[in-house]
Amino acid sequence: MSEGTLYDKVWEEHTVSELPTGQTQLFCGLHLIHEVTSPQAFGMLQERDLEVAYPNRTHATVDHIVPTSDQSRPFRDDAAEEMMAELEQNVRDAGINFSDPTSGEQGIVHVIGPEKGLTQPGMTIVCGDSHTSTHGAFGALAFGIGTSQIRDVLATQTVAMEKKKVRKIEVTGELGPGVEAKDVILEIIRRLGTEGGVGYVYEYAGEAIENLDMEGRMSICNMSIEGGARAGYVNPDETTYDWLKETEYFEENPERFDELKPYWESIRSDEDAEYDDVVTIDGSELEPVVTWGTTPGQGVGITQPIPAPEDLPEEKQDTARMAQEHMGVTPGETMQGYEIDVAFLGSCTNARMPDLRRAAEVVKGRQVADSVRAMVVPGSQRVKAAAEAEGLDEIFKDAGFEWREAGCSMCLGMNEDQLEGDEASASSSNRNFIGRQGSKDGRTVLMNPRMVAAAAITGEVTDVRELKEVTTP
Amino acid sequence: MTDEIPEIDSAFGSGVPIRGNDIDTDQIIPARFMKVVTFDGLGEFAFFDQRYDENDEPKDHPLNEPQFQDAAIMVVNANFGCGSSREHAPQALMRWGIDAIIGESFAEIFAGNCLALGIPTVTADHDTITELQDWVDEHPDADIDVDVENETVTYGEKTVDVTVDDAQRKALTEGVWDTTALMKSNADAVAEKAASLPYVDD
């Protein structure tokens, strides 16, 4: 049983009662909602004649179905328009703040929460979205919930949960050139498995994690759920505090920063905290990781051979065989040279400013391959505006990328941005499940944003570290 | 307020095997069917892309086979329901007719969503599951009894031990799996808790 970890402290801090089931009734400091998983919950409230208990601790945005090209209303897609209208009605009736597309602050829920300073260390944060784990980057306990639980949170601001074990994942050393947070988390999932984290919360620690910027920490916490862990976190430190200072909430309420900092410091895991499990990974040995299969755990270093199914543990062999058949990859070869049709730079994993900056450095002065459809979908309207202020949009557009409006887009194919037929995509998103990007024959290769940029240029999976220098005429 | 929440001590009915590890919620209900504001009618879209080809012609899939059309107990392998938090997934299975799922293991959010709908997710080891899946194939019309209270599954002449998570077992058998009213009754304690938290300033 863990003791003295951030998880133990935040759990304790938010415990309201023990339920007859043995579960804990946990107070939710922040409830984020979006258009896909909330309408049914509002419907259930209505059926039971219940009201939203804490509208001020609830915040809404629209991201999954919002078009990233023409956002004029009504949306071209009737179903999307209906969902949008329903959300507008629900938040108006309940008095919930809504970062809608006219606000200049709309975006993917896991991008805007941190940007607005809604996400803070030591909070409990829930959302009807499995990538809520993202907010753990700030030292919050953040996890995804289903729609019936959204109903619970709307009605009571609490959720019934069982306490989990804590696994510390220590990433030591310094990451090599071209190796990013995304590669770290893909490697963690490859090693510990897609269900290795079931029953655990992951604490990410060690030099390689501490040296990451907040956006990198978000990329890692974001994909905790792909490793089976419902939540993952990084202890807050000066990097966290510096980032928070620049957010909307603390710019408007600077006095709150000093008031809250002692609390943030107090919930950090103790030096002598006890963990249920500790795993150590040498970060200096990592290289860019790409997936060869149809689960995020089926990854491989870019210079390493794709494993033969028979070399994997027995329980993984069937899934690997099916995945390799779907992807059309050959064991023993590397993923380099795997042809792609689409390059997608976006999602709650990798569509923040540093992601776009790094990708733009790769793209600058180069051209997207003729055979590739390439798009950048910034994570939020603020990210988009900041990128435009730096001229990143021009770099991408000059190279042949489409520069889109903010949303989830091709990460999950709920708007018009979808793969067609058996198109292959180089994607900075989080899931390579069959059908995930909108076509059931589509093929997704997950990778970091610079690797996506490199693949867009060459038309195939490419080791960005080997990309030829741009020669100026 | 809500109606009395039923106590669920067991589930009973014929089975349907769904084989494979890591079956994610995008497979159980593809995202395009989530562009709706209610859960009504999701049942027909369960496993849609596994069941139909691009021309909507049926493919080989247990949910398409006539002998499994009345199934109430789904038998699955490891890490079932991984991926997205969409409750649309268990909603689709429930509306297709599933009352309980027996598997090697379940993704956490998925199992929680099932519990919120009163669907038991009970677990057993790989060999037990494989044997049960094979038995269901041979006896598609025969009933399986999932005893949540006593943590057993009975089929044919055989009774095997299964595991039901403690909180899930209590919630189901004591009729407290729908937690809204229960937690609402602690509203004063919730308000006190909110007031005690340093970051709550409203």
UniProtKB/TrEMBL annotation, chain B:
<keyword id="KW-0432">Leucine biosynthesis</keyword>
<keyword id="KW-0456">Lyase</keyword>
<comment type="similarity">
    <text>Belongs to the LeuD family. LeuD type 1 subfamily.</text>
</comment>
<dbReference type="GO" id="GO:0009098">
    <property type="term" value="P:L-leucine biosynthetic process"/>
</dbReference>
<dbReference type="InterPro" id="IPR050075">
    <property type="entry name" value="LeuD"/>
</dbReference>
<comment type="pathway">
    <text>Amino-acid biosynthesis; L-leucine biosynthesis; L-leucine from 3-methyl-2-oxobutanoate: step 2/4.</text>
</comment>
<protein>
    <recommendedName>
        <fullName>3-isopropylmalate dehydratase</fullName>
        <ecNumber>4.2.1.33</ecNumber>
    </recommendedName>
</protein>
<feature type="domain" description="Aconitase A/isopropylmalate dehydratase small subunit swivel">
    <location>
        <begin position="21"/>
        <end position="122"/>
    </location>
</feature>
<keyword id="KW-0028">Amino-acid biosynthesis</keyword>
<comment type="similarity">
    <text>Belongs to the LeuD family. LeuD type 2 subfamily.</text>
</comment>
<dbReference type="GO" id="GO:0009316">
    <property type="term" value="C:3-isopropylmalate dehydratase complex"/>
</dbReference>
<dbReference type="InterPro" id="IPR004431">
    <property type="entry name" value="3-IsopropMal_deHydase_ssu"/>
</dbReference>
<dbReference type="InterPro" id="IPR015928">
    <property type="entry name" value="Aconitase/3IPM_dehydase_swvl"/>
</dbReference>
<keyword id="KW-0100">Branched-chain amino acid biosynthesis</keyword>
<comment type="function">
    <text>Catalyzes the isomerization between 2-isopropylmalate and 3-isopropylmalate, via the formation of 2-isopropylmaleate.</text>
</comment>
<dbReference type="GO" id="GO:0003861">
    <property type="term" value="F:3-isopropylmalate dehydratase activity"/>
</dbReference>
<comment type="subunit">
    <text>Heterodimer of LeuC and LeuD.</text>
</comment>
<dbReference type="InterPro" id="IPR033940">
    <property type="entry name" value="IPMI_Swivel"/>
</dbReference>
<dbReference type="InterPro" id="IPR000573">
    <property type="entry name" value="AconitaseA/IPMdHydase_ssu_swvl"/>
</dbReference>
<dbReference type="Pfam" id="PF00694">
    <property type="entry name" value="Aconitase_C"/>
</dbReference>
